[in-house]
Design goal:
Elements lengths: L10 E7 L15 H11 E11 L3 H10 L2 E8 L4 E7 L8
Parallel strand pairs: 1-2
Antiparallel strand pairs: 2-4, 3-4
């Protein structure tokens, strides 16, 4: 997840279900999560969609996505989980 073996702007959508928090050695460690999100961002095409569900770092993930030009929709919260669809409408250009 930290070094996805795909070219920039390869995908229209990325699905990550209870996976993003595994980017760091410990579930409670947020250190590598921004790098994992940056890799997801790199492989998404403009207007690409990230559909995710998480049990850890929900606020941090949401904040990172918004700061990098994503619009979140369909946020569904449960006892410990959060599911959302994030569309990349701003942020980096396809050229990098």
């Amino acid at each position: 997840m930290l070094h996805l073996p795909f070219a920039d702007a390869s995908f229209d959508a990325v699905f990550a279900f209870v996976a993003i928090h595994h980017a760091s050695p410990s579930h409670h460690d947020f250190t590598n999560v921004p790098h994992a999100l940056a890799e997801i961002d790199r492989v998404l095409r403009p207007r690409g969609i990230l559909a995710y569900e998480e049990i850890e770092h929900k606020e941090g993930i949401r904040s990172w996505l918004i700061e990098h030009g994503y619009v979140l929709a369909g946020i569904e919260r449960g006892w410990k989980r959060e599911a959302a669809v994030a569309e990349r409408v701003g942020g980096r250009s396809p050229e990098g």
